Structure formats: C-alpha cells, structure tokens
Amino acid sequence: MTANSGSVANGGPDERGSRPRVRTAASVVVPFPRPQPGDRLDLQRLVPQGRSIAIAFLILAAGLAAYTIARQSWIFAVDDVEVSGATPGVTRQVERALAPLAAGRSLLRVDFAEAEVVLEALPTVRAVSFDRAYPHTLRVVVVPERPVAVVRQGSSSWVVSARGRVMATLRDGARPRLPRIWVTKDVRMQVGDIVSGDLRTAIATVVPLRSVGFPGRVATVASTRAGLVLRLRSGLGVRLGEPTDVHLKLAVAARILPLLEAGTLYLDVSVPERPVSGTTLNSQVES
Asked: Which of 9, 50, 122, 133 could cross-link to 137 by cystine, CB 3.0-4.6 Å?
C-alpha cells in the first residue's frame, strides 16, 4: 500500500490504468521600473517665484516711469516739422495749423487723431499721415486736393478739386488753364464745402481729361437740355450727352479731335460707338 501510494503521488499509473502527468504552470512576475526623482513633473519649478515676480514689476514700473518722464519733459520735444507731398503754399498752411498742437511738445504727446482732424479741415488737404522721427522731428505726409476747374458766379471765382471741394477763392483771370463752370446766384459756394447736384456732375466730367490725354484746352463746361457740353478754347464744342460713361466718351473724343478738318464746330460723342462731327452748329449741341 505504501508503494502504490507513492506511485500515485509521483504521477505513475494507478489501478485503473496509465494517465499523463499533470504539470502546474509556473508563475511569472514582471517587475515595473520604479520612477526616478527626476522623472516627476516638478510644478514648483513652473510657478514664478516671489523674487521673479518682484523683478518683473520693478521693470514694468521703471518702463512706465520712463515713458511718463519722456512725455512730460523736453527730451523728445518737437523742434522740427517735416511736411512732404504738398506744394509750398499747402506746406505753409499745414505748418501753421500744426503749430499749436506740436510746437515744443513732446513727440509722445502729439495727438495724431486730433492733428488729423485739424489738417483735413483745411480746404487744400484731402488726407494726412504722421510719423515720429526721434528725437525731435514730426513727419507729416500730405495728400492734397487736386484742382480741376474754376467755378464762376457773376464776378466771383472759386477753384474746386476733383472731388468737388471748394478749395479757395480766386481773383479774376487766375488759373487760366482750368476750365470754367458757370453757376447761377442760387448755388451756394463756401470754401471748404463739397458741392453737389449739377455742379458736382460738371466737375466730375473734367476730372478724366488728364488721364485720357485730352488734346484740347477746355474753356467752359455747360449742362444743357441736351446734356453736358465742353467748349474748347478753339471754339469747338464737344457734346457728351448724359453724364454716363464720361471717361469712355472723353477717350473717344481725344482720338478723334486731331483728325477733324479745319472749321469743324462740334463733335458729338454722346453715343461713343457712333461719333458725329459737323461744320454747322447743331441746335441740340449749341447751348
């Protein structure tokens, strides 16, 4: 009995026959690496220390103090105003208008928004821009109004810009190269204003003359029942008709005028695809 019991314990055959030996699976232990002290996220290193915060505040305070001192002191006082983009006359107007806002004041204290309002109120100035040239220079770039016509009302005259702004009064006979536009007494003319209505339309008519290379000198611009008519110094009338496609009509007229025969009295480009000229005045053209 003792032997048989040992035989069974060792996995040998018992009384009922042979049986395969059963083996117990071995246990496997996988060790995980222990975290090292240097591998941990040290949040304390990311948070600014009290000393760093204090230094940052000191730098900020010093910068603000330096800026305040510079604004109030003579260190960056405006000693010179450089104006570019304008004629000498407009330059003098700009300098006089800026004097109360900039003379002796620190560059940092010059209010560009205020200066822009003051300068663009000048009837000869369309737009301005500014720049600080340290230590003592204020630079101003001017976009002036462009004169294109003279408006006549009785014995009074005004020069007007391309956008219809009344730039200045004129003495009789001044600006002889600019076309004349006659208006009635009920049309309000005030320096600095922008005109409207038929006068604005007539002014817009002569604006493209330079860009299309118009060969003749325009003496007058008239708005008639038949539409817009340009009267040249030579006496020839150029009928434009309705104030539409003016640039195209002027370009067509500019090509045809050098080809016209002597004695031609009118050129009708109201229909630019079919220009017509004649040596006798057409009742529709004559104003």
From this structure: 133
